[in-house]
Predict the 3D structure of the following.
Amino acid sequence: MSDLEKSPVVAADSAKPSSPTSSETLSVNSDVPVLTPFQYRKLIWKLDLHLLPPLWALWFCSLIDRVNIGNAKIQGLEKDLHMNPKSNQFNVALVVIFIGLVGFEVPSNYLMKRVSPRAVLCAETLLLGIFTIGQGLITNWGGLVAMRFFVGIFEAGLIPGSVLLLSQYYPRYELQWRLNMLMVGNAISSAFGGLLALAIADIHSSNGYKSWRWIFIIEGSMTAGCTLVAYFLMSDWPETAKWLSDTERAILKAKIRGDGTVGSMDRLDGKAMRRILLDWKIWICTLMFICSIVAVYSINLFAPTIVKQFDPTASVRHIQALVIPIFIASGAATLAVSYASDKLRHRYAFAMFGWMLTLIGLVIMINQRHVSVNARYAALYLISIGGYISVPQLWTLLVNNCSGSYKIAFAVGFEMGLGNMGGIISSLTFQGSQAPFYDMGYRVNLGLVCAAMVMATGYVGGMWWENKQRDAGKRDHLLEGDEKDNLGDDHPSFRYGF
């Protein structure tokens, strides 16, 4: 029996809390216990212990496999595969991975609902590792493109699937910190990928494999091995989690309702699909995500190439040593902002803060001919930190404002699937022909970030207006229809948060 079931509790109807969303008050139902702040934190820590480590490990390995091509490029990939540095062959190899990402994120989330998160996510990541190894074995540009396409397919489900899974466990204002913890896994994996590339830069094996091949082979093997371990640690939906008691499940469900997340969508019929596809919040969030993720991909994919332009005579080791701290700083900033965001129960201002940092960095790079190399290097920090701050805010902003398992599954899939078009934009705007200044890439990024800021302001205004309509009872008529038990966040009692 869990500590919660053994400890004395107070029925919710016998307490008179000052706020229905405080950690002491988890339900208005007298059958669900009310926890002390310590008991509540203990329950959340239990979720963290069971859910985050395996997902973090999968995220860590997954992103390395997507962006390691940037490290491979400066270690001779283009030369050995007879690619023309002034052509768009390298950019095509970057773009093709996003075709898989865009096309398979929604189907992957749907498959999770039909099968199980553990089976789907671990199978996809294992295959991702296998095709990453394949990138180290190919002998021509066509083989590289083929391998990258399959890497995109099998990586597609991990991020939206993780967001969907965690949203079913954590209360509304506990989610941002956890998603940012996973985002930090991405930042650290970029730094680790640079360290690993640094360590194997001078490898020349007896079979003639150059160091860039070993980047793919070693990192792909790590992904496959990590996935096999993570499979035994992964959790499925809360209803089947053996490490949760019935009381704990009831408490979490009540707390989520107490935070204003009401309205189910557990039946996928024609009316439910219309509610999903016609929801303006999903499409605006998706557009914001596209505009924001371009900057993150630009740094993840091209930081080694950009830094090399600062000093074309610099060694590979020196370039890697300069790139690594950018991602370490991004990870630290992400954690700090996410903690503040959950504490203040606010997303919009923190996303705007991230976009402002990115804007400053982009303005410096657009004017890089007139500034010092040190200023340009500092600008890369601002672009990366700003992107790592704003992107997870958009994940949480969407999940916090959707309700119902199918609604969240499709919403997250659309946002992140179509959002990966930002990776295509990044890959096509930082072309070899634009070197060494990449003016088009930086200007496109600047315009997209400004567009994201405008859309975010309109998004928040729209949600504020809709809350006012619901407070006035203008949505109560929806409860009179035959789909009142499948409304999702259209339920009149749901309140949007921003």
In short: The chain is about 70% helix and 0% strand.
